[in-house]
Write a structure and sequence with these properties.
Number of strands: 0
Strand content: under 5%
Shape: globular
Structural class: mainly alpha
Distance between the termini: 41 Å
Radius of gyration: 20 Å
Helix content: over 70%
Length: 415
């Protein structure tokens, strides 16, 4: 393993690739929805429920995948997930009844997806302390790039074939590539005789003020702090609106007269600015602080939903998509970084998995609720109003988190 390149950056690159593949596929779902509605004759609420249940299952099972990542290592966990996610998408391409969609996508594919975000990001957390925000920003940029390219590719494949063939191809690609990349995910620097950030001297200088980052609180210890519960509630509230645009933004664009590629392009705008948000806010958080950058991201989400409500053409819609993407990219990189800062490296998978999982169980029904409100009111105005309120509440809750700086994580035990 001797190399001039710190292996942590190889791990971050592998995480980038896995998140590119998994989240690119996940957030192409909204591109498939119109074609599936035409073919199957189902309602938006039914497909929204499929995605909501999928979200609840994959986020809730992050509780398990996070703990398994701490004990078994990411290679095994992500490798098994690749098989399940690929098989789930392949099976979904052949469905003809609602129960089949729920089983193949909301259960099997969701089982596979649960091994992506938490195992990848919490593994990166283990490799970095001083450059944690930058490393996670780069890793999370994989999901952002997936948003940018995969929906356009999916839309193209659907237009030249059909939604079933496009989904079948996507499933095979994910199964093969993720299985290969997972082999290079090493659980932490200690496994190969390295130190976080690849610099023993810097870590030793930080020892007195960063004992939690090296040893880490257990889940039981973290759960006894006020910070943990504020963080958990903030994540639940954020999840209520987090996935709604990915499922319904194309439908909203069609409602206001934007169709075809111009409608699909809104998802790619989210991907482009998510890439910018993950890299910029992730890197900036190493110096500006996680709480401040998280507040910037959360405030941008409120702006995004207000713009969606005001949109009557492509310019305002794309501005809203850009704002939402900037928020999402920043949030995706800052969440695991903040878990590592507050509670340490040792049990980051278990702690982050619980926060992510509980947030998904309670907050992942946003797309189903939004789809129902669209079916009842014939537009997304009320749905996006509720999302804006939820986003505003998340700003308030994040504001209640302690303003900790890097290497000051031990203070949360005194809450």
């Amino acid at each position: 393993m001797t190399s001039n390149i710190f292996y942590g950056w190889v791990v971050a690159a592998c995480a980038f690739t896995i998140l590119f593949l998994t989240y690119g596929a996940q957030y192409s779902f909204g591109v498939f929805v119109p074609a599936m509605l035409d073919d199957l004759g189902w309602t938006r609420a039914s497909l929204g429920s499929v995605f909501s249940l999928y979200t609840v299952v994959y986020t809730s099972l992050s509780v398990v995948s996070g703990r398994l990542t701490d004990t078994l290592g990411p290679r095994r966990v992500i490798g098994i997930g690749a098989l399940l996610l690929g098989a789930g998408l392949i099976l979904t391409s052949q469905i003809s009844a609602p129960w089949q969609m729920f089983f193949c996508y909301s259960l099997v594919a969701a089982l596979g997806m649960s091994t992506a975000y938490i195992p990848c990001n919490m593994t990166v957390v283990r490799w970095f302390v001083q450059q944690r925000g930058r490393a996670l920003g780069l890793a999370s940029a994989g999901a952002s790039c997936g948003f940018l390219f995969t929906p356009l590719l999916a839309g193209y494949l659907i237009s030249v074939t059909d939604w079933r063939t496009a989904l079948l191809l996507l499933g095979f690609v994910l199964l093969i590539l993720i299985s290969f990349v997972a082999r290079f995910m090493i659980s932490g620097p200690e496994e190969i005789g390295e130190h976080p950030d690849g610099d023993k001297t810097k870590l030793e200088l930080a020892h007195m003020s960063d004992s939690a980052a090296q040893i880490g609180l257990s889940f039981q210890e973290s759960a006894r702090t006020k910070t943990f519960w504020i963080f958990q509630l903030a994540f639940i509230v954020t999840m209520l609106s987090l996935t709604v645009p990915f499922v319904h933004l194309v439908g909203h664009a069609q409602d206001i007269g934007i169709v075809g590629v111009r409608a699909t392009l809104a998802i790619s705008f989210i991907g482009l600015f998510s890439l910018i948000g993950s890299v910029v806010l992730g890197t900036l958080s190493d110096s500006l602080g996680r709480k401040t950058t998280m507040l910037i991201a959360a405030t941008t989400q409120v702006v995004a939903f207000v713009l969606f409500l005001l949109a009557d053409g492509v310019f305002t819609l794309y501005c809203g998509a850009a704002a939402f993407g900037f928020f999402y990219g920043g949030f995706a990189s800052l969440f695991p970084a903040l878990v590592g800062d507050l509670f340490g490296r040792a049990h980051a998978g278990a702690i982050g998995g619980v926060i992510f999982g509980v947030g998904g169980i309670l907050g992942g029904w946003g797309p189903a609720i939004a789809g129902y409100l669209r079916d009842v009111h014939a537009n997304f105005q009320l749905a996006f109003t509720c999302c804006a309120v939820s986003a505003a509440l998340s700003v308030v809750l994040i504001g209640l988190l302690p303003r900790v700086s890097l290497y000051d994580t031990h203070t949360v035990t005194n809450d």
